[in-house]
């Protein structure tokens, strides 16, 4: 309800106590530090990403070493890998990983590859080299492997091939290594 118009009541200011009589203001609480939830989340995410990256690098290193390391686990595996590196890929550095460390007698295979290269150049054709099953005679730290090496090419539209039986002698030297190879025919 409003006082009547012209009344003095509406014009009287409210009585206030002097400022000395006011109770002291309560102390203001210490300001709360701003919540750092976002910083915590970013720190956790960065830590997880760093661990994943380190784990990925370690996994990549292990997988690379397994893939790049020569497989010399058995005599037949070593001969297969040696023949692939030396006669198919023609990669002397890779083939050397499968040969004996203290001198090998692989002159016959050197001659076979030289003959392949000369015939390819002479005939203008690519000669493909393959081999059959690898028979292993394992005698502890030494072994021999026998296989049939096939050389085939298409010359003037005619498929031609030659086969020779080869014997490889191997030794266990930090894995199986090919020490000699000779044609047996």
Explained architecture:
The chain is elongated and about 135 Å long. It starts with 36 loop residues before the first helix and ends with a strand. A hairpin with a 2-residue loop joins strand 3 and strand 4. It is an alpha+beta fold and 185 residues long. The protein contains four helices and five strands, in the order ααααβββββ.
Topology:
Blueprint: H1 37-68, H2 75-88, H3 92-96, H4 107-123, E1 128-131, E2 135-138, E3 142-155, E4 158-172, E5 176-183
Antiparallel strand pairs: 1-3, 2-3, 3-4, 4-5
Structure summary, number of beta strands: 5
Number of helices: 4
Mean pLDDT across every amino acid position: 85
Task: Give the fraction of residues assigned to helices.
Answer: 25-40%
Coarse shape: elongated
Determine the N-to-C terminus distance. Answer: 130 Å
What is the helix/strand order? HHHHEEEEE
Low-confidence stretches: none
Q: What does the main sheet amount to?
A: 5 strands, antiparallel
Radius of gyration: 44 Å
The chain-level structural class is: alpha+beta
Q: Beta-strand level of the residues, as a percent range? A: 15-25%
């Amino acid at each position: 309800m409003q006082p009547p118009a012209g009344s003095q009541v509406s014009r009287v200011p409210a009585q206030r106590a002097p400022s000395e009589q006011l109770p002291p203001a309560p102390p203001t609480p210490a300001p709360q530090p701003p919540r750092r939830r976002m910083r915590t989340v970013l720190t956790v995410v960065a830590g997880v990403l760093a661990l994943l990256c380190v784990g990925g690098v370690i996994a990549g290193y292990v997988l690379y070493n397994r893939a790049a390391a020569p497989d010399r686990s058995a005599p037949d595996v070593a001969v297969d890998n040696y023949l692939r590196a030396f006669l198919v890929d023609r990669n002397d550095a890779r083939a050397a990983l499968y040969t004996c460390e203290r001198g090998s007698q692989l002159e016959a295979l050197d001659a076979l590859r030289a003959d392949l290269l000369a015939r390819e150049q002479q005939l203008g054709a690519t000669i493909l080299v393959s081999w059959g099953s690898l028979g292993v005679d394992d005698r502890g730290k030494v072994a021999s492997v026998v296989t049939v090496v096939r050389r085939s090419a298409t010359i003037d539209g005619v498929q031609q091939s030659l086969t020779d039986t080869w014997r490889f002698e191997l030794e266990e030297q930090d894995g199986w290594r090919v020490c000699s190879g000779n044609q047996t025919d």
